[in-house]
Amino acid sequence: MDQYVLDENHKPVLISIEEYLHWVKRCASHGRMPIQRVGLTRYGEKTETPAMVSTVFLTIAGGWDGEGNLHLFETLIDGRDLGATYSDVMERYTTWEGAKSGHKHWCRMLEIAYDDLGPRQDCDEFIPYNRRNSSKDRWNNIEIETD
After folding, report:
1. Which residues share a beta bridge with 76?
2. CA distance 62 to 97
């Protein structure tokens, strides 16, 4: 099974499972998770969120499009409090740009369909993967000593 991460230019990079696990371990040792999120938008108050649109990089391909491109990005909508229309919505993409566009599209769809979603909160966080190339690593955008 192929494992991918995104570089600082949002391009998929094929890496070994060992490299991936090392990256996750290094991030976790600094109290961070290796999140490669395209977008996260919540609607409503913090204690009561009627809807959420989340678009992420999958790290493992979720299928292919008709031209053989890997689906490495996915948008999910958690709108179970809104009824059946937007519960369990899932859409996959082959590029960062497609995923950004898809995320914006689904946010607009929710905003058009429901005028009482509450305040919008965007929580985008992207942590690029950087290969080691010196005596120090840049994992999680934190400079750390190598083992």
Report:
1. 54, 90
2. 17
Q: CA-CA distance, 111 to 19, in Å (whole number)?
A: 40
Residue 92, token pair as written in the block: 């996959």
The whole-number pLDDT of residue 97 equals 95
Q: Which tokens sit at 132? A: 């080691």
Q: Give the integer Cα–Cα distance in Å for 16 and 46.
A: 38
What are 91's strand-pairing partners?
Answer: 75
| Alpha helices (H) in the chain, listed in sequence order | 17-29, 96-113
For residue 30, what are its two tokens?
């600094």
Query: Alpha-carbon distance 136 to 49, whole Å?
Result: 41
User: pLDDT tens for residues 18-34?
Assistant: 888 887 887 777 776 66
